Amino acid sequence: PLRRVLLLGEGNFSFAASLCGATRTHIVATCYESKEEVSGWERAAENIQRLRERGAEIVFSVDCTKLKDYFSPEKGEFDCIYFNFPHCGRKAGVVKNRELLSHFFRSCAEVLAEEGEIHVALCNGQGGTPADQPQREWHNSWQIVAVAAGAGFILSNVHPFKAETIHGYKCTGYRSQDKSFCVEGALNHIFTRSTPLPCFKPVICEIELGSRKVSFQVPQVLVDKINRGFLELNSNHPVRTVKEKLTTELSQAFPLQDIDCCLSLLHQRHLNEVCHSNLFWIRLSPEETPSTEEMSHGLANAVSFSHADRSRDTDRNGWVDAPAGCCTSKQYYLRPSLLPCAQAIIQRGAFLPGTLHVLSGPVFRKCLIAPSSMPVFHEMVFVCAVDRGTENSCIQMLVNSIKTSIHSLHQTVSGLKVNISLQEATSFETAELNDFAAFESQLSKIEHFIHMEVDTFSSCEKGSWVGVIRTAHDELVSSELVVVFASLNLDILAMLICGIADWRMLWTSDRRFLLQFPRGELRLFKSFSLYPPSYKHDVSFWLPDGEQFDEVAFHTIARQVSGEMAVSIQLIDSFQHPEMGRKSLCYRLTFQSCDKALSHQEVAEMQLLFRKEINQCLRVTLR
């Protein structure tokens, strides 16, 4: 089929003339001026004649903000729309030109093909992105990424606009006249459609435990993550590829047994060292619940998911507050780690000494919003029972196999230098660890941390804690054996290996992510959403008298109402009333998407909903 290309604001039509020789391309070239106005411009008549000889359409007096009035989608959508150096004319300032671009992008959305592109060339500095050198202050730029986001577009590429390489091209239109202007340092911005912001329906998860079937409402913040199947056999996701490579390498050093299929999503056993606010507490339905014995086995026969009936008597957020004191017999939570599952297998004696047992799957933790804090990630746990006195050699073999596997993967992807080190746990304070390593330290006494550092990619974290190791001498019936446990965060490994800067990108629904990893092949990731706009909003409130403020719940509500668009929450002010004794807090929230168009209006709605939710759920008094 012919590729349909629309050119707007052509002026003398020299740019359109340079493109008209392209094969299997139908060009529609337009300008804002009338035919009479353009006819007197230098070389315009010559270019128009050339275009018509090559079969191009010429349309005069086209308003770029009302494209549907000129081009009906029924006659064919455009695969590419070009708008070089848009301007309101005369001495219009940045605000007027932002408005022009805003209406232009909204108009494009009505005539552009689903996978089409919009090319907008701007003079140096106008766009307001880091690609401009020097970059203007945001308020003094055209804010093109934010303006495009309002119409559902993301900036997917940007490169220099090299006018000198375009045969016959002459820029014109300076202050609406047949005069040229400086295009040195100009940039071509390429926009594509964003996937829409999600609107999640409540989801019910059904689990079979023994002969009983129980169900629960999935926490709203996890609805788009609970059943993604990244580790399944037919998955091309990089997290699965990393897992398979690790498993293959370790099978060269150990007899290996995979026991992923029977792990329960739910835990009930009390975790003494873990703060209750870090757990996703859930309420089972119907009232008949599995016995403690069934839950302690940590095994599930089947899991199914369905959309919830809103009339059901379930918490609207899908999670409940942790009870004061210890958890009761009817309180359950989503598994925060696979280590308790591994420990249950050991305690039941369901293991073979000398065999490396492998468990993997998603785990769920409430946590503060931070670049490396993930409320869900894929954990891989290794368990091996060895003769007492040989545990150190087992740890060394395990670490060497992990190192060999990661080195091999990383060299294939980027060729950059990678350093993986095993470090004593006693050398670090909890504050020095990332969220993953710090939480594992709460679960059990960690003896070693595994750290991975990469010769850095420009856009992502240089290094991170990716794993932990511990040994247990008192969890077996036999006093002759010692158990070695190792846990790896597969998501962080995939990010470091593929140069993925934002953990949320692993969970994107945009097909452009997985298309970069065909057949499970790992490659250096190239973002399809560049320089996404960010928005800041403040919220201040009085704390309820005599109650401890749950900051983790505060952050979790922000995750929930924003669909993980809140990327930073900072306490910027704290005030104690001298007479009433009441305490007031002021937080600054930063919203930004890594893969979707996010507009100022959408963020304003998120902020309003956030204020409403913290007022109702945390009982704070808004100021």
Automatic annotation (TrEMBL):
<dbReference type="InterPro" id="IPR045864">
    <property type="entry name" value="aa-tRNA-synth_II/BPL/LPL"/>
</dbReference>
<dbReference type="GO" id="GO:0004826">
    <property type="term" value="F:phenylalanine-tRNA ligase activity"/>
</dbReference>
<dbReference type="InterPro" id="IPR036690">
    <property type="entry name" value="Fdx_antiC-bd_sf"/>
</dbReference>
<keyword id="KW-0809">Transit peptide</keyword>
<dbReference type="InterPro" id="IPR019446">
    <property type="entry name" value="BMT5-like"/>
</dbReference>
<dbReference type="Pfam" id="PF10354">
    <property type="entry name" value="BMT5-like"/>
</dbReference>
<protein>
    <recommendedName>
        <fullName>phenylalanine--tRNA ligase</fullName>
        <ecNumber>6.1.1.20</ecNumber>
    </recommendedName>
</protein>
<dbReference type="InterPro" id="IPR029063">
    <property type="entry name" value="SAM-dependent_MTases_sf"/>
</dbReference>
<keyword id="KW-0547">Nucleotide-binding</keyword>
<dbReference type="GO" id="GO:0005524">
    <property type="term" value="F:ATP binding"/>
</dbReference>
<feature type="domain" description="FDX-ACB">
    <location>
        <begin position="530"/>
        <end position="623"/>
    </location>
</feature>
<dbReference type="InterPro" id="IPR005121">
    <property type="entry name" value="Fdx_antiC-bd"/>
</dbReference>
<keyword id="KW-0496">Mitochondrion</keyword>
<keyword id="KW-0436">Ligase</keyword>
<comment type="similarity">
    <text>Belongs to the class-II aminoacyl-tRNA synthetase family.</text>
</comment>
<dbReference type="GO" id="GO:0006412">
    <property type="term" value="P:translation"/>
</dbReference>
<dbReference type="Pfam" id="PF03147">
    <property type="entry name" value="FDX-ACB"/>
</dbReference>
<keyword id="KW-0030">Aminoacyl-tRNA synthetase</keyword>
<dbReference type="GO" id="GO:0005759">
    <property type="term" value="C:mitochondrial matrix"/>
</dbReference>
<dbReference type="GO" id="GO:0070475">
    <property type="term" value="P:rRNA base methylation"/>
</dbReference>
<keyword id="KW-0067">ATP-binding</keyword>
<dbReference type="GO" id="GO:0070042">
    <property type="term" value="F:rRNA (uridine-N3-)-methyltransferase activity"/>
</dbReference>
<keyword id="KW-0648">Protein biosynthesis</keyword>
